[in-house]
Design brief:
The complex is a heterodimer of chains A (about 130) and B (about 290). Helices cover about 50% and strands about 0% of the residues of chain A. Chain A has about 130 residues and is mainly α. Chain A folds into 2 domains: about 90 residues, Orthogonal Bundle (Fumarate Reductase Iron-sulfur Protein, Chain B, domain 2), CATH 1.10.1060.10; about 30 residues, no CATH class. Chain B folds into 2 domains: about 120 residues, Glutathione S-transferase Yfyf (Class Pi), Chain A, domain 2 (Up-down Bundle), CATH 1.20.1050; about 140 residues, Rossmann fold. A 4-stranded parallel beta sheet of chain B has the order 2-1-3-4, with helices on both faces. In chain B, strands 6-5-7-8 form a 4-stranded parallel beta sheet. In chain B, helix 1 links the parallel strand 1 and strand 2. Chain B is globular, with a radius of gyration of 19 Å. Classes of the chains: A mainly alpha (about 130), B alpha/beta (about 290). Chains A and B meet through helix 1, helix 5, helix 6 and helix 8 of A and helix 9, helix 10 and helix 11 of B.
């Protein structure tokens, strides 16, 4: 679990700087969630996550499982009528967790047979997004 | 013969030899030499959108610099490599990223003006060779084969950075199959994500994404699927073993079907490297002896 030691203003600034997005631009239409292929398993879903961030509930989002399910497919960013890219926000949130030395994925968690079967591209991408 | 710099990427050298070898061979037949970069490194497999993450852009930029020794274009086949190489170059050379660009060049101790254009092999087929021209080179017409062209996410989005095809209704691969005599099948999930690297962390989530795509393809009446990405291929071919429905639908690389139409040797087509055996379908259609 990530315990934030920075002030709320600082963490908001970090998210906006790392993602290049302005949280207050989102007007909650839900287009990102509607198009997201993994939203069925996400908690919170993309539009909810942005709303929680707007309300300053950073701990809740940073410690959620939802941010790790983004597959970087960019449907949300492509379709947002306000030009907000949730994929970039998810990347920024994961980066904050990872830079606090909290690795999401370890090699031991992965099935051995799967490691020998799957294309290495999958592992390179996963370790880039899920490890420090 | 016209030479274009070629970047295979990590997976094409091992798990996806069929994607790589068929492309080299078909290009040769069509009068283009895909000249592999003398030295190259992995592109990183996924683009990092984190604004200060300059370290992750070093690998792709290094490949683009290396390409300059051969041509101003760099051809890739893997959708992930295409996405990473093209976006890295596009974003590093935006005017507002001047400071990052200078830092990168200082680190690499070289000068590079961003002139290497990353192109996908499909774009070479369309623009350099031409689908009309391709039609005249077909030896085995893929007549009667209903192909669902699955583009996935990495070739199409973000469209303002990649500018590959219509991000909602791409047609480039369909047009290529039409030129080969096959019947392109329309389905709504052409650009839907297969689950990608989420497979490594949460296989059940990724498998459900792939299953949604396969259901849509089967409903549209396709005989088989064609992809451009090794991870898409794995997700929608191999993961069929874990799905709640049996599809038994073969998943090709687009270069394999292109190779089949141009009578490329079966050793190069490498039709054994699939979870769902595609040979019975091809025999049934009279495309394979």
């Amino acid at each position: 679990m990530l315990e934030l030691i920075e002030s709320l203003q600082e963490i908001k600034k970090d998210i906006e700087l790392l993602s290049g997005q302005t949280l207050s631009d989102c007007y909650q239409c839900g287009e990102c969630t509607a198009g997201c292929p993994t939203a069925f398993a996400m908690e919170p879903v993309p539009s909810q996550a942005i709303r929680l961030l707007q309300l300053g509930k950073f701990n809740e989002v940073l410690n959620s499982t939802g941010i790790w399910l983004c597959a970087s497919c960019n449907v949300c960013g492509e379709r947002c009528p306000r030009g907000v890219d949730y994929g970039k926000i998810a990347d920024a949130l994961r980066t904050i967790v990872l830079r606090n030395k909290l690795t999401h994925l370890t090699l031991e968690k992965i099935d051995k047979q799967f490691i020998s079967d799957a294309p290495q591209q999958a592992f390179i991408a996963a370790f880039r997004k899920y490890t420090t | 013969m016209k030479q274009i710099a070629y970047y295979p990427g990590c997976t094409l050298y091992t798990k996806s030899k069929n994607l790589d070898l068929c492309a080299r061979e078909t290009a040769q037949i069509l009068g283009v030499e895909l000249k592999e970069l003398e030295t190259w490194n992995c592109c990183g497999a996924i683009y990092s959108t984190v604004q200060d993450d300059l370290a992750n852009q070093v690998a792709p930029i290094r490949n683009l610099i290396e390409a300059q020794k051969i041509s101003n274009k760099l051809v890739t086949l893997c959708a992930a490599c295409y996405n990473v190489l093209k976006r890295s170059n596009h974003n590093l050379f935006l005017p507002e990223n001047d400071i990052y660009r200078r830092r990168m060049m200082n680190f690499l101790d070289t000068e590079y003006d961003g002139k290497t254009e990353t192109v996908h092999y499909l774009e070479v087929l369309k623009n350099d060779i031409g689908f009309e021209n391709l039609k005249t080179k077909v030896k085995t017409n893929l007549d009667g084969l209903k192909v669902a062209s699955y583009y996935g996410c990495l070739m199409l989005r973000p469209s303002d950075e990649l500018n590959f095809d219509d991000p909602d209704n791409p047609t480039m691969m369909d047009d290529m199959f039409a030129a080969l005599g096959a019947e392109p099948v329309e389905f709504p999930f052409k650009g839907e994500c297969c689950g990608g690297y989420v497979l490594v962390d949460k296989p059940d989530v990724a498998t459900r994404c792939s299953q949604t795509i396969l259901e849509s393809i089967v409903d549209a009446g396709a005989d088989c699927v064609a992809t451009t990405c090794p991870l898409c291929q794995y997700n929608i071919d191999n993961q069929q073993k874990l799905m709640s429905k049996q599809f038994n639908l073969p998943v090709f690389y687009f270069t394999q079907l292109l190779g089949l139409a141009l009578n490329v040797d079966q050793k190069i087509l490498n039709l054994d490297n699939h979870y769902i055996d595609p040979k019975p379908l091809l025999k049934q259609k009279g495309l394979l002896k």
